[in-house]
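#lab-general

N.A. 3:47 PM
ok so I finally got the sequence cleaned up, no stray characters, all 737 residues accounted for. can someone with queue access submit it? mine expired

B.Y. 3:52 PM
send it over

N.A. 3:53 PM
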Amino acid sequence: MKFELSLKTNLFHLSALSLCFLMASGQLRAQNITIPIETKSNALVLQADDKKNLNTIYFGKKLSGAAEYEQIPSMYKQASEYSGVLSSPYTPSGSKSLMEPAISVSHADGNNSLDLRYVSHKVTKIDGDVSLTTVLLKDPVYDFEVTLYYKTYFKDDVVEQWSVIKHKEKGNVLLQKYASANLYLKAGDFWLNQYHGDWAKEMRPEETKITHGIKTLDTKLGTRANIFQPSVFMVSLDKPATEDEGTVLYGALEYSGNFRTDIELDYLDNLKIISGINNYASAYTLKPNEEFTTPAFLYTFSSTGKGNASRNMHNWARNYKILDGKGQRLTLLNNWEATYFDFNETKLFELLKDTKKLGVDMFLLDDGWFANKYPRNGDVAGLGDWEENKTKLPNGVASLVKEAQANGVKFGIWIEPEMVNPKSNLYEKHPDWVIKQPKREEHYFRNQLVLDLSNPKVQDFVFGVVNDLFTKNPDLAYIKWDCNAVIYNAYSATLGNQNHFYIEYMRGLYKVLERIRAKYPTVPMMLCSGGGGRVDYAALKYFTEFWPSDNTDPMERIFIQWEYSYFYPSITSSNHVTDWGKQPIKFRTDVAMMGKLGFDIVIKHLKDNDLKYVQDAVKTYNAIKPLIWQGDQYRLANPREGSVASMQYVNAEKTSGVIFNYLVNNRYDESSKFPIRLKGLDAAKKYSIKELNVYPGTNSSIDSSKSYSGEFLMTVGFNPNVNSGRTSVVLQIDEIK
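B.Y. 4:20 PM
back already:
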């Protein structure tokens, strides 16, 4: 990480109490226990003093040795030990700290104080790149302990942090708050980049200077938690980070339910970031010897801007977190916008022929294929009744799978197994399976309610929806898993302690997904949720991709996909060509190619040249998709800052890449007036550039016979000639050998 001009603006604030001891007597320093937690570039350093108080003494660029870290505390001006500002890596409440706690408890005897002292630590090498540091903390009065876990991914400068809480008191302990991580930063100023949105308006950024007090990012929706406010964020130190400059921390909680992140700037200008499960309506009763494990908080730090931080996260995600991150994905044709709920077997057979004609891998059957007593002919009925509709599919899903195979393509299907329509056979048979208050009016989100996944019987039912499909159709190739409703009137008919509801719901969901992946480990699954309502790195352990937004207008998607790209690699982003928007088919297809390509259009409605274009584009995409999915991603021209958006992908060898360029401002005479500087190339190599996805009957203005040095392209740049007549330009760059 980047050092600031003075140590005062670089380092975390040492706890006032520890600092007092250190400055009073140099002899005490020998009694300190220092715990460096290091990655390739960065270090988080903890230190226990002679009284076993554990504090964060450093978070910054990795230094040359442990002795360097020992000198850091003496660089700080002494503060009053009664300031109430301590730098514990897991701040307890009711003791010495007066600031926002990471953990707050009520002991079995009713006492609300907690003091956590260092006991021991160990470092376990998992492999050449991954290490796990564990730090055990205990209360000296109560038999209560917290173990802090720091999992470091050395090469990618990524850390996952979580905690495990347990006790052996004579009675239950009430956990009032139970965060995953508690970070401390020190700088002259801080800037927060957060996101907000709604359906079709996902990932809208807001950047503001952090002022004194507490800023809380949270959700209380229960499910589809990210629809209004995603759990991802950035914090820049001293000034807003740009793509290639500035110091920035990316944070993300790996949790698919209610989250809470507190960002507190105290009166001594320390910034504290405390993140974990939202404790809203969720005080947790912890039994003796029971372990409570928090979800992981993920972070990476970059001293060279946002681009480096996002590439760190992309590499980490592909290598360690997302399902089959280094593998393949299926291109597809979806029937939703071609038919909506109005289809039958004959119509689908025709669409299967179109799938082959288009050249993609798979046909995806969307909503509307199920339910008989209350047929699924709209979104008001049938959800929960997962038998094939006999009118639409008299021969069942099996006939579609067979027909797909006859056409040389695969077959996938849509489900929403966590939800139920009140107008359904399931609701009538099992009203106790539904999340709703027994004495209150039902509230619907998209005419549906949520099933109670804290109930083991419901878990079995949801697993059975998936299992039955594969049992009856072993060649089924893909699942699109939707999740459209939030939780109103949270209540479980079978759960004794309603304070545990939100936590037990998420545990139930993860149990179901674990069972599915244990039996069907490789089947691709899309995480839909009406857009990015549930995307996070806990969910992506089970899903190969996610649906960024139901808004598929390609102009809107440029902005939405751009913001998601800071945190998620392109291989996870499902992008479909649809009839949304007024842009030509070329523009729509080019935008969708910046991730996992799919189509949701009526092939027979395409003009001849449009059809030829998309057929050729699919072939081109198949050739360059390894670059898009696995290459290093560089954002070249921000659509929020100019008339042109430009995104580049480059392979690790720096021998080949692809650049997507779009006109995002249609006002008169807007164009790429100046060269766009490329990134990530080898300055000494020579490169050629040619245009891909040229529309039939048109000629490219790019001279592919010319050569350019990497130095030239990164210093001067290259003009893709984007203008009102060329609104979308895709370029391939290759080394000349």
